[in-house]
Predict the structure.
Amino acid sequence: MIKVREVFEHSVKYKADKDAYAPPQMRARKTYGCRECLLNPDYIVAAYPHSFEGSIDQEMLQDNFSDSESFSRVILDGNSFRSSEIIVDMSFEELSDRLL
C-alpha cells in the first residue's frame, strides 16, 4: 500500500457582511482540502502529472496548499462507488519512485 494525501473538493461556510446596517449573512464557497489515503498499487492503471491552471482552481487551492505544491492524477481500476480518477498531493516523480 502507498500512503498519499488525496485532494478533494468541499464547501466552507463563512460570514459575509453585506453592509453596515444589515446583519451578516452566511455564505458558502468551494475549496480544495486533503485527506490521508492508502492506494493499492495493484489497482493503479495510470498516473500523470497534474496542475490546477484555472483561476477558480487557484483560488480554491490557496487556503490549504502552497504555490510550490506538486500534484499527480491517478487512474484506478475496479468497480467502486468512488471515482476511478483521483488527484494526490505528490509530485509525479515521487509517485513514480514509490511505484517502481
